[in-house]
Amino acid sequence: MASVYENSDFIFSTTASGEKCSQSKGQEEVTSSKWTKVFGISLVFALGGLCVQGIMYNNKRSDFELLNEQQHNTSMQLSAQQNYSATQSCNLCVNGWMVCREKVYFFSTDKCNWSNSRDVCISKQADLVTISSKVEQDFLVSKISETHWIGLNDLDTEGHWVWVNNETLKDTGVQFWTERQFGKSEPDNWRHEDPSGENCASLGNIDGNLKTWFDNPCKTKKKFICEKKYPFPFTDDNN
Prior knowledge:
Blueprint: H1 2-89, E1 92-94, E2 97-100, E3 103-107, H2 114-123, E4 127-128, H3 134-142, E5 148-153, E6 162-163, H4 169-172, E7 200-203, E8 213-216, E9 223-229
Parallel strand pairs: 5-9
Antiparallel strand pairs: 1-2, 2-3, 3-9, 4-9, 5-6, 5-7, 7-8
């Protein structure tokens, strides 16, 4: 009988212990389930936050690209307006002078040698034109139909070309001499026409090439271009 009771106590103890293990295991499963739900909710919020940040980034990027496009369009419009204004101002004539970019130009109808051409310009409170940029070069080319004297010479020192305002070609930083594939390019100081050589420069030559410079004998008679700063108000007593 004693052994029966002992066995009963063992069975009861084992059963109780099994119930406690089951309860403990159930609690662990509940806890694990709760943490899984918490982790899942946290992950959802995290993914949602990333999505929101992605949307905000895309919106900001779209706004940035739109601003860039607007800035580009505005720059293009301003450039077009400036070019239009410059074109309009370069077509303005005042008392026989052409106004362009803070300068005024006089295109002669008479022909003189280089020295006399300069005298005429000086009598108009101006001087033979000094070309200091490609923009100015292109403008002058667009206004002539034959060769014209410009204010460039090497009368003092052969090969050392100086403008009438004492600037050198190095000072202005531009030069548009004619270049030849065969033969010597300009200035070539050709002496067949004048033994003293060619010491005065012209825009264009008698053959109709008007886009570049040529050296010529200074005694040759050509039309000429005078230039002076644009005064406000504009006056020209000599017309």
